[in-house]
Amino acid sequence: MLKETVQLEKMRQKIEDLNFQSGDRANFIDYGKPNSAQLKEAQETIKRLEAEARSTQAELKQILDTLRKQQPQVIEEWVKYHVSMLELIVAENSTDRNAGTRKYVAKETIANWEKVRSGEMEYVGINESFLKDYKLHVRSINENSQIGEPIKATKTVSPAKPKGKAWWQFWK
Length: 172
Known about the structure:
The chain is mainly α.
C-alpha cells in the first residue's frame, strides 16, 4: 500500500478519534453529574476537540483536493481498500440476529466511500456497533497492507460467562 494512502487513513482515524473523545465528554456532561468545575472543563474540552476535528477534516479535504489533481491513484487505493473490506461483510452468510442491519450499515458505508471517490465527501466514519471487526482491521493498516485482505472476525467472550463454563461458575 502506498505511504500516502496510509497517511490518509491515519488522518481519517484521527478525526474519528477526536469525534469519539468529544462524544465521550458530552456523555459525561449528560450522564456523569459533573460539578460546575467539571462541567466547565468538559465543555472547554469539547470545544477544543471539535475545533481540532474540523481543522483536521479541512486539512484532509485540502490533501484530497491536491491528490485528485496530482496522484488520484492514492485516493483510488484508499477507497478500494475500504470498499473491499465492506464487500466481504455484505457477502457474509450469517444467521446472527443483527446480520441484516450489519449488511445495511456496510452498504451505506460503501455508498459514503463512493462519495469520497467522486469528491463529494472527504471523511467516512465507521460504525462501532455493527462494523467493529472492520474498524479494528483498518486500524492496523500500514504500507504492507493489501487490498482485499480478509477481516479477522473479533470474538468476544463476556467476563461473566467464561468460555465453556456456566455463568455461575465464574471462579473456575
